[in-house]
Amino acid sequence: MAETEGKFDFAIDRGGTFTDVFARLPDGRERVLKLLSRDPQNYKDAPTEGIRRVLEEESGRLFPRDQPVDTALIGWIRMGTTVATNALLEREGERTALLVSASQCYPPLPFPCCWPCNNERISVGLRSHKGRKEYDLQRH
Question: How does 75-95 read in b/e, with b if 16+ C-beta sit within 10 Å?
Fold first, then answer.
């Protein structure tokens, strides 16, 4: 962690309702914030807003919402999301294909879009059908 010494480190979990922001400050202290994941009247993006707030409050510098954050102050950002996981589990959202090596597909995934590809070359073609985008997968 020596490369991030003296910098702000962030771990962020963006959920469907709330975004949790963990920050390790340059002096070693820690901060935690919880923001609404969607609050368009106040900010465009919750993870960015969480980072902006911590940097502003802890550095004493002004970081306007309409300008990019100064990344020179940041050591690392780790971000996870339950939004995509929930959409996959609930079978909502856009249809998606998952290509995996056969050795990585155990136990078999319970989704019709899981296609073991055995390290073969796969091409993905995009076509439009009645206003919908459809993808064709072909083995070579």
Answer: beeeeebeeeeeeeeeeeeee
